[in-house]
Amino acid sequence: MPIWSYIIVAVAAYLLGSIPTGYLVAKAKGIDIRKTGSGNIGATNAMRVLGKPAGIFVLLVDAAKGFGACFLAALIYTCYFYQFNGLHPTTDAMPFPSPKIANYFILIAGIFAVLGHNYTCWLKFKGGKGIATTAGVYLALAPIALGIAFAIFILALLTTRYVSVSSILAAIALPAAVWILQPHNLFLGIVTTALGALAIYKHKSNIQRLMQGTENRLGKKSGGGDK
Known about the structure:
The chain has 227 residues and is an all-alpha fold. It has one domain (3-212). It contains ten helices and no strands.
């Protein structure tokens, strides 16, 4: 695959991920979500400020951004291979698509979709915390590992009623599950670990509130733990 194809996928995935769903939904209702609740544009704050239907909509769309970026990358890779492979005689021409290269291609899309969500260019590079978008990426890349992380998220949420604690534990569980289930996929393991660390870093304000005892539990109208 030529370098320009990776650049195109990275830019397209970033732009898809950068769509500020929570901000746009709140704006349609005449609310600047950045100035309400915890100030985060993610699904949890949208649910607190706008209600459950709007919050669930934001959650699903944010997840769809991650899944869609990976799907788009897979589509571009497949189309490029079958349209152009063999037309440009090179020593690395292959008769069949390479799963390894395809995974690299899709992973790059996933990375940039999450970065687009977390640092959207439309809101001065301030965005969400990437949990929902990362979930969408791993629904495409590693659904079993995602299922394990989601189970831990639900268990932690039922036990603590802190969305932030549940998100942090899921961000730890996902890379652990990937390393256990796919120990030979080094690139996937490294990327998942990096995305998990980024998710935890984006929860630094929540961690501070947890330490201070001021973090709100699920069901309250303001506070942290946003996706």
